[in-house]
Amino acid sequence: AYTAEPFVPARGGLAALRRAAAGCRGCPLHRDATQTVFGAGSADARVMLVGEQPGDQEDRQGTPFVGPAGRLLDRALAEAGLDPSEAYVTNAVKHFKFTRAEPRKRRIHKAPSLREMTACGPWLAAELAVVEPELIVVLGATAGKALLGSSFRVGEVRGTVLEREIHGRPERLVPTVHPSSVLRADDREGAYRGLVSDL
Ligand code: URA
Ligand code: SF4
């Protein structure tokens, strides 16, 4: 099975994890992506935000949530009274998965498979063990399935605090929609209000 497990160092902090993750070949997604996009933020962060996977901009820059979805997320966090610079932000999957309609054309995001999410899980588990956040904000369906299982439905639990055992540790989680879904929504303002309200 695909797994990041053999690439995850047994000890060390975020810097050691980030260094090791740069060389991860736990699943085929590393082949076409530019680089591993590991989580960003302080090991002391009280809130950890978990997205799906890096997008086009994140893949180029090597940092999560620096593209359009990230800008919207930062704005929503600030409006909800959370300092974006104090949160730890990461993704369920650490390489960008994409397709191209034609060779050399724009890269189009593809949702990661359950196998890829499972393969990448050991990195998220390692980040949780180091950061020990007081709260995990689950951004959308992929992060929800990766953390809470394949039956996760964001509409059923958004904005509520769940207490679950995640990778062997008791965690508190608040699911909400993914900021990219706000950008795609017909009622963008309403979707944005919903995200701020959940946060
Ligand atoms: N969407 C995500 O889920 N993560 C990112 O880092 C950027 C966009
Ligand atoms: Fe490793 Fe995750 Fe990248 Fe797959 S997506 S190669 S498991 S870091």
Describe how the helices and strands are arranged:
Blueprint: H1 14-21, E1 47-51, H2 56-61, H3 68-79, E2 88-91, E3 98-100, E4 107-109, H4 114-131, E5 135-139, H5 140-148, H6 154-157, E6 162-166, E7 169-176, H7 179-184, H8 188-198
Helix pairs in contact: 4-5
Shape: globular
Query: How do the helices and strands follow one another from N- to C-terminus?
Result: HEHHEEEHEHHEEHH
Distance between the termini: 36 Å
CATH C-level name: Alpha Beta
| Total beta strand runs | 7
Low-confidence stretches: none
Radius of gyration: 16 Å
GO molecular function, one term: deaminated base DNA N-glycosylase activity
Pfam families: UDG
Domain Uracil-DNA glycosylase-like: 38-196
Organism: Streptomyces naganishii JCM 4654
How is this structure best described in words?
Helix 4 packs across helix 5. Strands 2-1-5-7-6 form a 5-stranded mixed sheet. 37% of the residues lie in helices and 17% in strands. It has a single domain, classed as Uracil-DNA Glycosylase, subunit E (3-Layer(aba) Sandwich), CATH 3.40.470. The radius of gyration is 16 Å and the shape is globular. The mean pLDDT is 97. With 199 residues, it is α/β, with parallel strands linked by helices. The protein starts with 13 loop residues before the first helix and ends with a helix. A hairpin with a 6-residue loop joins strand 3 and strand 4. The site of uracil has 13 residues, from helix 3. InterPro entries: UDG_Type-4/5 (IPR051536), Ura-DNA_glyco_family4 (IPR005273), Uracil-DNA_glycosylase-like (IPR005122), Uracil-DNA_glycosylase-like_sf (IPR036895).
